[in-house]
Amino acid sequence: MSNNLNSYLPTPTKQRFATTFGVVRPISFWVQLALGGVSGLALFLAIFSRNFTVQPTTNPVMGFGVFLGVIGILVLCFRLYWASRYRRLNNLLQSSNRELHPRKDEVIQVLQIGLIVSFIGLLLAFLASDVTVISVLSKAIALPQGVAVYRPESTIRSLDIFVILANVNLIGAHLVGGATSLGLLNWLD
């Protein structure tokens, strides 16, 4: 019984954590949602505009970058869903009924899962960004300087830049989610 009582945060620390949690959680959620929305829109434009252009071949490396970007968006969607757990935890922490308060290890577990998901998304977005930048760089290097005749498949299109924009915004969204979870975990320790 004593061990169960010791697993609760002391009241002043719990109240300060709940206040900080209540401020940081919505800011993090909306920043992630905005960056994810921009990424989703940019990837949407890049995916569906590619199908309607008359280019003879598309770059498979760029397609892999788009695929990783879509997976990164899906991971971000799960991360945003997981942020709803943060909202429920915040409501329980601010409850006047002490019996409803979650234990410290429950809060830590939820924050750790959010941190792990953010790191996975960050890794995917970083790989997607690297792949797309390397693809665009290889196209830029392959273009001959000062010659008007070139192969159409080696031109850099604006849609390639949209894919880079989407992946860089995904890095930012996952970084915000990871920093939020890491900061709140640090606050608990």
UniProtKB/TrEMBL annotation:
Any one Pfam family match given in the protein's UniProt record, by short name: DUF3611
Keywords linked to the UniProt accession: Membrane, Transmembrane, Transmembrane helix
Membrane-spanning intervals of the chain: 29-49, 61-82, 107-127, 162-188
Keyword Transmembrane: yes
Annotated protein name in UniProt: DUF3611 domain-containing protein
Membrane keyword on record: yes
Organism the protein comes from: Dulcicalothrix desertica PCC 7102
InterPro entries documented for this protein: DUF3611 (IPR022051)
